[in-house]
Structure formats: structure tokens, C-alpha cells
Write a structure and sequence with these properties.
Elements (H helix, E strand, L loop, with lengths): L2 E4 L3 H11 L3 E5 L5 H12 L3 E6 L1 E2 H5 L5 H10 L2 E4 L7 E4 L3 E5 L6 H5 L4 E5 L2 H21 L6 H16 L11 E2 L14 H7 L9 E6 L15 E3 L4 E6 L11 E9 L5 E11 L10 H6 L8 E11 L7 E2 H8 L15 H5 L7 E4 L1 H18 L1 E3 L1
Parallel strand pairs: 2-3, 3-5, 10-13
Antiparallel strand pairs: 1-8, 2-6, 4-9, 6-7, 7-8, 10-17, 11-12, 12-15, 13-14, 14-15, 14-16, 15-18
Helix pairs in contact: 2-4, 4-7
Amino acid sequence: MSIELLDMNHRDAVIDAFEKANGRIRIISPFVQGGMSKYLVDSLDRGITAQLITRFYREDFIQSVSSLTALKSLQSAGADIYALKDLHAKLYLFDDNLAIIGSANFTGGGFGNNIELSLYIEDEYDLIERLSKYFDQLLSTVCTAGDFKITETKIEEESLIVQKAVKGRDRTSKSNPTRFGAVVDIPQVPVTTSVDELENILGISGEGISAVLKFEGSAHRRIDPDGKYKPNHYDRKGIYFTASSKSPRSLTEDTTVFLSAVSWDKSGAGVPIIVGRAKTRGYDKDNNTDGTLIKEHPWAVDFPFYIELYDIETVDTEIRNCISLNDLIGEVGYKLYPNTEKDPTISIPNIKTRHHQKAYIAITSYAANRTHTMLEGLFKKYGKSTF
């Protein structure tokens, strides 16, 4: 599924999101602490740009619920930080295809010890676009309200005041009322999402999501189109598997996996080609790529997670004779993905790029049924290999 409920695994999810980001990160969080800010600093060090909207309340720093040291490390690393009063929202945007929204502050407690509830949203472009507009409008409103960017000088001056305030604290001390930040009206982002669309986005519609395209190989490690596809086998454990660069938490025992070799089609176009199907044992947090697996399959060093596959059926012919993703798009069009199936105006080029840089991507029940039918035709024509 493209939307996952996070309850006990916030930390793993957000670390995964930081590692996958390659362009920009935008965060709204009232509280910021060093335990989590280091992941954003690491992202900034590899060229990511970042914007952060947060609270800048003196009492928060005195009570250590938010950290000036963390803000200083982020500001020094290149993050643009802005102060907003009365902030309570928490939003994390990674590039334009991943978001986390919920109760967790950007702190060790928020992503570790506290009981939190959030949504992990990936590849739901319409929804993420609305969240992105919310962030951009809020930031624009903050900037219009005045000079509320948090500078190095502002942090250093506040640090000296807070240090003195902490030393002078006792049980009779009153809360410090000093607050820096913009006062703004809540930005209004038009919401046109229907109930049916929300049910589809959240995966609670009648049909639900039943299958994924699982990409084998990568753009820099394409599989030979003139060879027959053979599934990955983990000799030490005696299992077949597929590996992923992201934690495959959304894959369950009920998920059908369409094995899609990243290769070249008959016309020479570089495109995933569906070569077969399989069932999966589902996500297991203990299935982490180790040295033994890497020794058997050196390419797995770039894929830290794996899931077990069974009931594997592949077409007994060269990869180039199988189902090009472009051909499948030609068959089902906008009905291929859950987040496009209700928009007949979406362009084919847009659909063709939705899988880029993905380990796997969910498809609709309609597309899954069509893919099954196309595979059955190829099995009849070329024969079937089972594993």
C-alpha cells in the first residue's frame, strides 16, 4: 500500500525516508532535539536542501523540550529555519513523493519512546502535493509576517539567556513568557478529495490493493534481455527471495508479486519487463541482508531488506519476449496505479515515470487481473518454469 499506519516503528520509517531523499526535505515540528536532527544534518552534508518551521519559545529551551544546540547544528549545516507561534502541526516532506504526518515531534521521544500515531505516505502524488502546498503557503505567510528566520546570531543570543535562566531556576520560578515567531492565519489549501478517493488512498475501498510490481535489477544493473529470468535463491537458507532498498513493511502474505526485470524490450527501450509472478511470506523485520547473503549475491549490498518468495512462476523464454511495462500501460492506461485510476486525464508519460527509483509499486486489482491474463497467454505460448 502507498499509505501505511505508523504506531511502533516511527524511527525506522523516518530514518529510511532521510536515506532515500535526494533533493529537498521540509519539516514542520514545534520541538526539535539533537537525537533526530543529526539525520537531517547528514542529509544536508550530502547536498540535500532543507527548510524547517518550528517554535522558538524560551521556556521550551529552559525545560529542554526543544534544543538550541540542535537548531544551531541544523543552521550551521545549511537548513533554513523559521519561527512560528502557536505551532502544533507535525509534517515531514521528503522530495515530492514521500510524507509523514501525525503526532510525532522531531525529537528522540517523538520517533522513539513516546506513543505516537502517524501516516507514512509514499507515491500518493495528489495528496502529497496538497501537503506540499500547505507547507509552502505556511512558509510564505511566515515570511510575509516579518523577519522570523532563525539566524546563528539569534541562536547564540538565546543560548546565553537560557543558560543564565537555567542556573537561576528553583521550584518557585514562573514560566518564562518570551516567545519569538510569526503570528499567522492558518493557510487555506483547497480540499477536493472525495470520500471514495480517500477510501482508495487509504486502502479501505472494496477491492483494496492486491498486487505490486517488484523491480529486479536497477537502471545501472540491467538484466540481460536475451536470457531467461531466474529468481534469486539464498542458498544458506534454501529460499527464494527478492530484495529491497526500503523496508517492505507493506508487503503481506496476501500480496501478489509480479517480478519485473529491469531490462530492455524488443525495441531497445530500457523498461521493466514482467517475467512472472509469486507469493510472499510477507515482511519480516529480521530479514536483513547480511554478509552471507552479500557473499552469494554481491549486488545485495545495496538492498538491506529481503522477503521470501514462493509459488514462483516465470515465463520460459527470453526476458525480451515478456510483458514490457509500456505494453501493460498500453492495456490498462490510467487504471494501472491506485493513485491514478480515478483520473482519466492523466498523461501516459506521467504514468510511465511513476515507478522510477522504486523497489516496488502497488497496482490496482484491475491491472493485476489484466497482468495475470497476459501472463497466462505467455505461459501457453512459451511454457512455464516453477520454483
